Amino acid sequence: MVICADDDAWTKHFCGTSNRAKSPSTLHRRLPLCVSESIFHRSMSSSIRKSFSTLNVTFLGTASAQPSTTRNHSALALRLGKDVWLFDCGEATQHQLQKSSVKMGKIEKIFITHTHGDHIFGLTALMASLLNGAGGITEEGSDPRLNVDTTIAALEVYGPLGTRAYVRNSLAYTHTQLGSSYVVHELRFPSDPPSGDFTMLAPQSGECHFGRNIQQVDGCWQHIYKDDVISVSAAPIHHSVPCVGYVVTEAPVAGKVDPSKYIPELKRTRTPMTVMRQLQQGESVLLSDGTILHGPARRKGRKIVILGDTCDPSPMSALAQDADLLIHEATNAHLPGIDPATKPSDTHETVQERAISRGHSTPQMAGAFALRVGARRLVLNHFSARYSGDDSEESRRIMDAIGQLAASEFKQNVVCATDLMSLDISLREQ
Ligand SMILES: [Zn+2]
Ligand SMILES: [Zn+2]
After folding, report:
1. pTM for the full predicted model
2. Do the bridges between strand 75-80 and strand 83-89 make them parallel or antiparallel, or are there none, so unpaired?
3. Is 218 one of the annotated active-site residues of the chain?
4. Domains, the chain
5. What distance in Å separates the CA atoms of residue 221 and residue 235, rounded to the nearest whole number?
6. Separation of alpha carbons 260 and 215, rounded Å
7. pLDDT digits (tens, 9 = 90+) for 218-228
8. CA 428, CA 256: separation in Å to the nearest integer?
9. C-alpha 66 to ligand 1 mean position (Å)
10. How many other CB atoms are found less than 10 A from the CB of residue 132?
11. How far apart are the first and last CA of the chain?
């Protein structure tokens, strides 16, 4: 049986009535995304995400190629208040989650940048834990755990072509039976088949049938997810295989209220102080004497750009403009006199050439891109196995030097991520 996983199927599904019978609390956690504002309002009116003040990034894995005792394979957790989104899910990401303060049970979406193993080998293992996976029963009769409601998705996965097939086949051939549902939405490149699942295997228990195949429009995938407070877009970036970068954008937030501007007026007109709440939301308040107080204008929300492996992310320059945080790989660096493994024949040019030929970047390339898109902060990740990132003096010297190479282009300090490093992204003052 061929399962239709195109946009139409998704639209029909979510504009239908089946979800409306669910309770609002269930919908808040489980209902999937929307492509357009209109669809959102018709299908998700009872599932508005609450605004959040904490936006935090935790690096769960910062290695390229091979993991080590100090650097795990790629994975990054973005905490939006209490909700967690994961970007990439390399081998043993579950272990890293357990070592961190990120709550695994709060993961609601997983975004895969590309299907290289160091970014995806941990995905189905994590899904099995997250979605109550089991290996079947030996008794006769059907396993009650297989009665999974696949009209709604408990977990959403996004990734390029192959992500859905990888998950489906991996779960099927390991006899993993999920106790909860999931859906995979794929970002299709123009050269990809526009429909189909890229596998002959039919969806197994737990997979929702409304996974979208999202086509590029004007070179990117705008608003693959959007709600009232946050949206996600993506664009292709150059690597050795199809790869994407994600941009997470917070909607404008309430402006900063200066109480000294309002309180004397409220006291003078004996207006209840509770109107401060309206002013805080940017609303205007009419006082008893006819004066109108205007709340502060809304501030720009935060923007985070998370790139997959790349030797050139320029196709996403426009989307990445003015990012509060840019996370860019820096797999290879030329560090003569600092890195004892430097070959005498190496030069900056040969190292960069080698990095590009494998679809990767040097710190200088990352710094130049950060400058070009006007990023406020740059964090490097995805380091070669030779940069262990441990606490030794030599490792610190090497990582400092890598940061400085990027900073020489970016003209600002650059941070080299370590595993389990966590940073908050704060709102701008204006
Ligand atoms: Zn990689
Ligand atoms: Zn890769």
Report:
1. 0.87
2. antiparallel
3. no
4. 7-14+27-135+148-250 (3.60.15.10), 259-294 (no CATH), 303-424 (3.60.15.10)
5. 6
6. 51
7. 999 999 999 99
8. 10
9. 9
10. 15
11. 55
